[in-house]
Design the sequence.
């Protein structure tokens, strides 16, 4: 059975998921992995960094739903969306940048999650690879019938701890450079 967003919400309101961390991915209810401390520290570092970087120009959403198509509502570790919280009556369906801090879910974040975000038109997706201590930057979503959700990223860069990157959506000049070491615990 493929779940719709409405069925997912109804089940949540009925208490079906009480005590469980889940997200809706491609019509399937997916259990979310427990967070280790390194994951939590990374998410905190990302929150501080992007809040300083974007200020009031964007809403830096931490582990909140992002609507992608009718049957997916992932909860990325970070989603940078335009505007402020009051600009949204529903969860956003677009983001300037999505980031996942990844250790036990690395293969999933590189595979199915990357395909889902590419299919959703997310122009830039980052995976903070906590195992190898690198930042994986994915850009240029494109159709790919062989990918889990029919899309993939055409560009992938792996940046080491001493390297830096500027988010594509950053429009504020030199202050937009992100040092990889600043997002690693």
Sequence:
């Amino acid at each position: 059975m493929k779940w719709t967003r409405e069925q997912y919400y109804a089940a949540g309101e009925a208490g079906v998921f009480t005590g469980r961390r889940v997200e809706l991915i491609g019509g399937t209810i997916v259990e979310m992995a427990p967070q280790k401390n390194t994951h939590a520290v990374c998410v905190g570092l990302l929150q501080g960094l992007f809040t300083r970087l974007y200020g009031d120009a964007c809403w830096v959403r931490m582990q909140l739903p992002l609507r992608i198509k009718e049957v997916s509502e992932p909860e990325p570790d970070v989603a940078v969306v335009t505007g402020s919280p009051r600009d949204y009556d529903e969860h956003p369906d677009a983001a300037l940048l999505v980031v996942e801090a990844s250790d036990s879910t690395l293969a999933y974040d590189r595979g199915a999650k990357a395909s889902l975000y590419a299919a959703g038109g997310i122009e830039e997706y980052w995976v903070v690879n906590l195992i190898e201590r690198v930042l994986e930057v994915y850009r240029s979503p494109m159709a790919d019938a062989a990918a889990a959700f029919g899309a993939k990223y055409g560009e992938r860069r792996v940046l080491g701890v001493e390297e830096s990157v500027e988010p594509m959506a950053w429009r504020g000049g030199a202050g937009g450079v992100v040092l990889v070491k600043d997002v690693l615990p």
Summary: The CA atoms of residues 1 and 54 lie 40 Å apart. The mean pLDDT is 94. The radius of gyration is 16 Å.
